[in-house]
Amino acid sequence: MTSQGSPALPTVRIAAGQGFWGDWLEAPYRQVTGGPIDYLMMDYLAEVTMSILQKQKSRDPTLGYATDFVQLMERILPTLVERRIKVTANAGGVNPPACAQAVAAAARRLGLGGKLRIGVVTGDDLLGRLDGLLARGHELNNLDTGRPLRDVRDRVRSANAYLGAWPVVEALRQGANIVITGRVTDTGLTLAPMIHAFGWKRDDWDLLAAGTVAGHTIECGAQCSGGNCLVDWERIPDLADVGYPIVEARADGTFDITKHPGTGGRITVAGVTEQLVYEMGNPAEYITPDCIADFTTIRLAPAGEDRVRVSGIGGKPATDKLKVSIAYFYGYKAVGTLVYAWPDAYKKAQAADGVLRQRLKALGLEFEAILTEFVGAGATHGVLGLETADLDALPEVQLRIGVRSSDAAAVERFTREIAPLILNGPPSVTGFAGGRPKPEEIVAYWPALVDKRMVEPCVEIVEV
Questions:
Q1: Could you report the per-residue pLDDT of 72-88, keeping only the tens digit for each?
Q2: H helices within 259-371, ranges in order?
Q3: What is the pTM (predicted TM-score) of this model?
Q4: Max intra-chain CA distance, the chain
Q5: Among 160, 47, 43, 42, which Cα is nearest to 94's?
Q6: Where are the domains of the chain?
Q7: How many degrees, rounded to 5, is the angle at CA 393 between CA 391 and CA 395?
Q8: If one looks up domain 330-443 in CATH, what number appears?
């Protein structure tokens, strides 16, 4: 562990490297080369990501994980080994073993044989166990609607329980330098190194809550160090060179949020606060598999340039349930756009929308939903407050129209009715973005709970 931060207490430095699958590829490299860190935490998974990866695995059993993670690791593995930096990442998706083998192969190509141990955490994937769980009385009712999963069982594409930090801790205790998981909570990837470093116990609720808050603060990468920040956003320096956040954690549960010196962005109390309320429900009960964190107890204070101190966090015992993220097939959709130019851009777009809807009706096509937006004419906030003259003066308006249906043929026909408007609809079409749209499958989200006793995490070690 490093000894930065409070002189009285040693700290462990955990750097955020990815906030989602598709985040800035340079961030992890900059985190491991830009200054001292002990851990690199990389969060790849969102709810819809699991269904995408499951589809990939169904086509090729060697896939089902974030493949760009392997490419990234090949780039930074020598530095990780040289600086003894450990990695926690949920890049394993629905196939952590295959991801681990791919990273191991990359390490061998780099001549790092004998210098790495890769921990693999599985047990979260419940897709093959759903029928057994249902037969044993676990209804997996939708948390939002109360409907039983049986209503959509034949359309389920993926089902993953959210594991917590403890399987990752176990992998670290077994000497893993890199821990690759499936659906482990975003916060657990940061909490686990803190538990491992400081020896926290399973019932140290305040400490576990502190680690959970630390994980929540950095789980979205640069969103807490200047990116996507509302407060004084125009004065945030050098976003092109934004520094991703780092947690400097101490054994007493206090921690600082900072970043490498000389990097862009900004870390302030206001910016950290914005991230803390991200995806927030009841602030007094932020429920994870590891504990319940009380966000109303959090205390933030500036502790120097680009440094915020976090303290005072209280926690409560964990529940006896795990959240299950289920994705299921819902139908088809397609979205098309046309751009209309001044004069009368808004009126032309409105007229084109009317023509298209009339033609769809004449064809006898039925859709569960048709949604129209006039981008540039209040699509985000509505036209409230805009005068007619303002709308008439708009230089251009994008007509964006989408449909949803269980009938793939109806959606396909919709896609063929947009392009004709270029010549047989209102005048001044200046852009047909992306050509004729293509029907896409809709993957819907089904949140549920399952008894913790029904999920058994497994930890294995791959020697390189």
A1: 999 999 999 999 999 99
A2: 269-276, 345-362
A3: 0.93
A4: 76
A5: 160
A6: 11-124+162-319, 330-443
A7: 105
A8: 3.30.70
